[in-house]
Design brief:
- The protein has 330 residues and is mostly beta strands.
- The protein has one domain: Porin (Beta Barrel).
- 6% of the residues lie in helices and 53% in strands.
- Strands 1-3-4-5-6-7-8-9-10-11-12-13-14-15-16-17 form a 16-stranded antiparallel barrel.
- A hairpin with a 4-residue loop joins strand 7 and strand 8.
- The longest helix is centred in the N-terminal third of the chain and has 20 residues.
- The N terminus is likely disordered.
Length: 330
């Protein structure tokens, strides 16, 4: 009983001491969508779905403070739609930081195709199309509990992450007292470098990712991403590529995206976004999107029209989507 009381007292002291000197910030957003969707194949006529209304909300809490040894501590967690999302702890010295957490930084995700091809509303792979359309970013250690090392310079940022268990996440391997998760894959790592290389308005990057299979019956996974983006005056253009492949497999999925965005004024922006997904299919998936965004000062509203063709590499498997989206941040 004395041990329990002593432990509780020490824990309380640490919590009180930490909170009294830390700066705490709360941020988040509320997002609403109204979508109009139709789909068809070569053998069936286009079928329009009922109008869909969707919501998404997020709350993030972040704490930062200077430690006695000169390091800067930052820590936090988030919730998305009421469920626990990412959590992290970061120690920073100068331009170098070390972190532990879930999806603290995208690393290779920072150089996926959607990070270079500018869009106003949203990238293609999060646009809510059916599962037959397979475009995505680099994916191996994404959203896994990992160790992170990051160094910034005037020309570029270099990042590395290592995940002891790929596909582990909060509530499984990270629940009170870390424990192995039998459903997770084995280890994986990400490496990426990106920045303006000393040229104003330029962004270039390259990243690689690899995850080792958990069992001999499944294949290792590897991916890479690279691209270039340039902004001048009110125009931004970009080109990006993401590749995903099972090691020792001939199947490689290559996602290529192009984009151009024009800022008409401080409130209004318009853009064109195009993407292609290539794999072993004889026919490539193709995506085209026209997007418009308007800042109302406290709330953003976007309108996007997406046309997708040849889902799953099948000619005539097409979809169209028109979406109105509002985002309010706090």
């Amino acid at each position: 009983m004395k041990k329990l009381l002593l432990g509780t007292a020490l824990a309380s002291a640490v919590l009180v001491t930490g909170s009294s000197f830390a700066e705490t910030k709360v941020s988040g957003y509320v997002e609403t969508t109204v979508g109009f969707h139709s789909a068809g194949t070569s053998s069936t006529a286009d079928n329009s779905d009922p109008t869909a209304i969707g919501y998404e909300s997020s709350i993030d809490i972040a704490v930062s403070k200077e430690l006695d040894n000169g390091l800067t501590l930052s820590s936090g967690f988030g919730t998305e739609d009421g469920s626990a999302a990412d959590a992290y702890l970061t120690l920073t010295s100068g331009n170098t930081s070390f972190s532990i957490g879930s999806d603290v930084s995208g690393v290779t995700d920072n150089v996926s195709q959607e990070d270079f091809a500018p869009y106003i509303a949203q990238d293609i792979h999060t646009s809510g199309l059916s599962s037959s359309f397979g475009i995505s970013g680099v994916k191996t250690t994404h959203n896994s509990d990992s160790f992170y090392l990051k160094h910034k310079s005037d020309m570029a940022t270099i990042e590395a992450s290592y995940s002891p268990q790929v596909n582990s996440s909060m509530g499984t391997a990270s629940a009170n007292g870390a424990r192995p998760d039998a459903t997770a894959a084995a280890s994986g790592y990400d490496l990426a470098v990106y920045g303006n290389m000393g040229v104003e308005g330029l962004k270039v990057g390259y990243g690689i990712s690899k995850a080792t299979a958990a069992t001999s019956s499944t294949a290792d996974q590897e991916g890479k991403g690279y691209g270039v983006q340039y902004s001048m005056n009110n125009i931004t253009v970009g080109y990006g590529v993401s590749k995903n492949q099972a090691v020792n497999s001939t199947e490689e999925k290559t996602n290529t995206a192009y984009g151009i965005a024009y800022k008409v004024n401080d409130q209004l922006s318009v853009g064109l976004y195009q993407a292609t997904m290539e794999d072993n299919s004889a026919i490539d998936e193709e995506y085209d999107s026209i997007q418009v965004g308007y800042d109302l000062g406290g709330m953003g509203i976007t309108l996007s029209y997406i046309q997708a063709e040849n889902g799953g590499g099948t000619a005539g498997t097409d979809e169209e989507k028109l979406e109105i989206r509002t985002v309010t941040k706090f």
